[in-house]
Write a structure and sequence with these properties.
114 residues, alpha+beta, four-stranded mixed β-sheet, 2 helices, globular
Length: 114
């Protein structure tokens, strides 16, 4: 999960999954109009919805995370959908492609002292 203060940007339009660091950074700069070097996470989806790439810069170098689902697809929010930024794991899917609209993160349980 990203650190405190890190924003997660979702690209609504699918991208060519053959793009690497430079191609995705160019998409961040020219399409999303954000600075790809600011340390935020930029999430891109394939056209068929079975793959995502997450691009981030940590101050030293680039990180490119790639995930491919064997079954199902990633449910991607539309331009007018409301997305809770406190629940980014719902897009990446802890298991298969979880539907972020249905995921509820439970409240932490206080430890029981014996």
């Amino acid at each position: 999960m990203p650190g405190r203060g890190v924003k997660i940007w979702l690209a609504f339009e699918p991208v060519d999954m053959r793009l690497g660091f430079d191609g995705l950074a160019a998409k961040v700069a020219h399409v999303l109009q954000q600075d790809p070097y600011d340390g935020h996470w930029f999430v891109f989806r394939s056209k068929n919805g079975t793959r995502i790439k997450i691009l981030t810069f940590d101050g030293v170098g680039w990180w490119l995370h790639y995930r491919r689902l064997e079954k199902g697809v990633f449910t991607w929010p539309g331009v007018d959908d409301r997305f809770d930024p406190d629940e980014p794991g719902a897009v990446c899917g802890a298991g298969a492609g979880l539907d972020w609209r249905r995921v509820k993160i439970p409240e932490p349980i206080a430890p029981v002292l014996a």
